[in-house]
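Sanity check. The docking grid for zinc ion depends on where the pocket ends up, so I'm generating a full predicted complex first rather than guessing from homology. Inputs follow.
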Amino acid sequence: MNDRNKSTELETVPCEVCLKEIPRTEAQTSEVDDYVLHFCGIDCYDKWQKENADKE
Ligand SMILES: [Zn+2]
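Predicted complex below; grid placement will be based on this.
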């Protein structure tokens, strides 16, 4: 096979909480309005949820 798609497969995104770069395919995601947030794991996701829980 060819490796043309390698760059997109290895695309990373910063975690919304700790800013660590993580592969997009492994990120936890949360949609807020039309914006998608990325998290390195459930710990950061929980932390973000708690910090934003009282915004509504
Ligand atoms: Zn994180």
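Relevant for the grid: The pocket of zinc ion is lined by residues 15, 17-18, 20, 39-40, 44 (CB under 6 Å).
Also worth noting: The longest helix spans residues 42-52.
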